[in-house]
Structure formats: C-alpha cells, structure tokens
Amino acid sequence: GDVIVRGASADARLAIGTVGQVLKVNSGATGLEYGTGGGILQVKQTLKSDTFSATSTSSYADVTGMAVAITPTQTGSKILVTVVMQISTSTSYGGHNFALARRVSGSDTLIALGDADGNRTRGTIQAVGGGSNYGYPASRSINFLDTHGQSAGTAITYKVLHHDPSTNNAFRINSQLADNNDSGTVRTISTITAMEISSGVL
Question: Which of 50, 167, 175, 193 sits at a 20 to 30 Å CA gap from 83?
Fold first, then answer.
C-alpha cells in the first residue's frame, strides 16, 4: 500500500510506485520517491549445448544458437554482453572472424570491432588453429558494454556472426572438428549473456 512520510511539520502520503520500482531519496535530497533502482536491472542468457559447423563465407552469417534477446527497462541504460564460445578450426590458418552484432527492428549493426586499418579485416573474436593440434576446441570470450541508444521497451537481440575472407576453412562450435563418436570427443557449451546496467551506476 501507500507509505506515510513524516514531513517538516506534518505527515504526508506517498502513493505506491509501479512494478519494479524502489523507494529512494530524490535528486534534491529533500524527500522520498519511487524510481528505478541502480545496478543490474535484468539478466538474459542463451546457452548453446549442441554443435554448429560451417565453412566460413566472405559475407557475415549467423552462428546458429548464439543469440540473446533483451528489452531495456530504462532509457539511458547500457547492456553488458558476454560471449564465451568453444571453437575448433580446420587448419592453423587464423582467418576465422567472429563478430558481435546488435539487431533492432530487423536491422543488424556490427559492434565491438577492432579499428579499421588498410585491408585488414575487422572483427570481435579471432579463432586460430593450434598448428598440429588444430581441430581441438579452444575457448574464446569477450565482454562488451554496449551503449545501445534505444528507448525503454525497444527489443534488442545480440548475436554472433561468422566470416572468413578466404571462404574455405571449416570450424565447429562445442566439439572437435571431426566430432568422432568416441569417448575422446567432448561436447561442450557456449553462452551469450546480456545484462542491463542502470544509468545510475555508469
């Protein structure tokens, strides 16, 4: 119900706030009000436990299952995106490029990219084969705090894309490249997590 607050000379009624709001001191430090709390506002995660394999293409394509949807509850908040992937590659060639993208209203925007420099490919994560140990998965991860610029209530999807300028090198997520049916082949998991961070703590 409502809250009775003692003022300078008399009690006053403070109406209850809306769902998810907290009671806090106002900006002038003269009284109480309901508003958005600080810190982490919400957490969304997608866990990928199956495998995905492809021969990378010269244009960006989705890594199936590596996407997470989140709808900001606060205008001005930021989204902390964490990606952890287990990637095996076909050779020691290091051109496998994985990029983080933000999708809003059906349109993808690449984010968290290295600087442009000549003909060099920009990416978020690069998967490098381990020489004679190629074909075995290695863990790759990224943390990125995204200033998404969207209003509260606008749905956002973060996802991982793959791209290989040479177009002829295979990779696999969550298993060895060969994926043999024996006890020596281990199936792993990959995750993508989105956390909305209140503007009050940034």
Answer: 167
Q: What confidence tens digit (pLDDT) does each residue in 65-85 have?
A: 999 999 999 999 999 999 999
The burial class, CB within 10 Å (0-12 / 13-18 / 19+), for 60 is middle
Residue linked to tokens 């021969």: 55
Residue 23 near residue 1 (C-beta atoms within 8 A):
no
How many alpha carbons fall within 13 Å on the CB side of residue 200? Answer: 12
Summarised one tens digit per residue, pLDDT across range 170-191 is 889 999 888 889 998 899 999 9
Cα-only R_g, the chain: 23
pTM: 0.82
| Amino acid identity, position 152 | A
Residue whose token pair is 């982490």:
40
